[in-house]
Amino acid sequence: MSGRGVRGAQVEATRAAILDAAERLFAEHGVHTVSNRQISIAAGQGNTAAVGYHFGTKTDLVRAIAGRHAKAIAEIRDRVLAEAGDFTCVRDWAACTVRPVTEHMAALGSPSWFARFNAQVSADPALFEVMMNEDDLVSASREQLRNVLDRFLPDLPHQVTAVRVLMARHLIVQMCVETERALAEGSATARLNWEDTASDLAEAITALWEAPVTRRPGDVAGK
């Protein structure tokens, strides 16, 4: 390998170490309480300015962490959709929505930190937008899934759809947190695996989407 190749490999290894350390620290302590210095030390970097040198701002660092997971999930989603064929019910759609996430989580092994990192980022409006943008950039198949849902639930009001999208996403995020934590800690609930989590989530999300709309958008509360 040439000197330039060795240098490139060293840079990539340093960046990966920083991303791994930042993801874990953000998951454990929250994004805004962790300093670049702490991340550099946890990544084994003698230069405590390494984070800023390689990634820029903290938002850029979050974007880089989100981006590498979004790419992996998108690749699984493309494969899952290709294998699924034609959808026959909302449950089929829900399974294809959930499985790319849980398969990715399973592939990370244990302990992993992505679910808890995701939850921390999702609690911050600005960082949540960064996370969603990264997913949209690498996954055209998300639009395909949206179109399938419209086919099954064509009369669902737009406002209700928007609310249920958020509900489903938060359900996926938080249940992945619970499974990730249980597996990492070896707690009593660790008997659940990612396949079980996917199945339970698909059933719950199906019930969420098929629930009747008892209050029309625009109704005044209490009437």
Your description of this structure?
This protein has helices at residues 3-29, 36-42, 50-55, 58-84, 90-108, 114-122, 125-138, 141-152, 158-185, 194-210. Helix 1 crosses helix 6 (114-122) and helix 6 (114-122) packs across helix 9. The mean pLDDT is 88. With 223 residues, it is mostly helical. It has 2 domains: 1-56, Arc Repressor Mutant, subunit A (Orthogonal Bundle); 58-210, Tetracycline Repressor, domain 2 (Orthogonal Bundle). The radius of gyration is 20 Å and the shape is elongated.
Write the layout of secondary structure elements.
Layout: H1 3-29, H2 36-42, H3 50-55, H4 58-84, H5 90-108, H6 114-122, H7 125-138, H8 141-152, H9 158-185, H10 194-210
Helix pairs in contact: 1-4, 1-6, 4-5, 4-7, 5-8, 5-10, 6-9, 9-10
Strand/helix succession: HHHHHHHHHH
Separation of the first and last Cα atoms: 73 Å
Radius of gyration: 20 Å
Tell me how many strands there are: 0
Structural class: mainly alpha
Number of helices: 10
| CATH class designation of the largest domain | Mainly Alpha
Features:
Arc Repressor Mutant, subunit A; Tetracycline Repressor, domain 2; 2 domains; 10 helices; elongated
Q: Could you write a compact summary of the structure shown?
A:
This protein is mainly α and 223 residues long. It is 74% helix and 0% strand.
